[in-house]
Specification:
mainly alpha; Growth Hormone, Chain: A; about 400 residues
Length: about 400
Amino acid sequence: MSTSKKNQKTLRFALILGAFSALGPLTIDMYLPSFPEIADDFGTKASLVQLSLTACLVGMGLGQLLIGPLSDVYGRRKPLLVGLVCYLIASFVCAFAPNITFFIAARFIQGFAASAGIVISRAVVRDLYSGHELTKFFSMLMLVNNVFPLIAPVAGSGVIAFTAWNGVFIVLGLVGILLAMIAGWKLEESLPMDRRVTAGLAKLFSNFLVLLKDRQFTGYALAQGIMIGGIFAYVSGTPFIYQNIYGASPQLFALLFGSNGISLIIGSQLVGRMTHRVSESRFLLIGLLLAGATSLAVLLVILLQGPLYLLVALLFIFVASIGMTSTASFSLAMETQSHIAGSASALLGLFPFIIGAIVSPLVGIAGEYTAVPMGVILLSTSLLALLAYFGLVRRPKKQTAS
């Protein structure tokens, strides 16, 4: 096969996997511009609408914890197809929820089902690639995946410009139908029978303990998870900060929020394209330090009530650091886990969503007209990620007595 044809096939494969992985940002980001409208329609507080995001994040985290190991047993295609069918059903249920409580519960189920696309797409990558090729392909997958934070809020604001917020979830249901068709017709099984885990579920879940006892894997997973989890404070807080504090329209909010998809792409592609010159470990450290510096600057701008353009610019740089750390840490963590890639992918996916579920409602704890909680959370998570990295990955070895 010629190099050009091989590259075309690789790109096509990345597009397919990226579409499944994109269920995460689509499910999270597409309804963000409609937060104020949902609160008004249900006659509820902003914190309860943010709780629907928390429920979705918890569902995504727990779903990966179950679906990842199951894909090590049954292969990648079957769990993915089941998850996509459940997703499309849950999306339509969200659209016709009669009250905020029902809506929150439906969002949990929707997030749980969406996790199949997230965890299995990453496991497929590890099934087929290793070393620098793993980093390069994952950065390509991130390129596809990170386009959707650009598209999702803009698409969501476009939908609510012509219809009510319910229309966003009808569109997500249609996306679920399309992805189920793609999975059934285009995705080949990447985990052959002889590489599948044959033990019972008790033994299967003991693999999590094996992974957690691996100090470096846990360090990479926590550094990535805390960083990505912290950014959900930004995801949950900016709909109200940009629109209520700075007076941005839903359409302007969508453009400002979506622009950070570009910064994610920049960060992840920098790692993928420079991995032969700069190691993944070096990129991870640079990304963590950059996140710490910019999150401190964000908090200062908030406390000093700085202009919107400065806040947006700093958040752009902060999100770029997330692209760097997530790509580098994924490759470093997965490199030695080919035998249990589904379980490893599940843990890597669990930490961000559990942490995100914790911090998301905290953003609104002081009301809809202050950005201070978001700034504090971004700085705190950046420092905790650095602590996890230096405490577990870079911890100096104990000197043995001679």
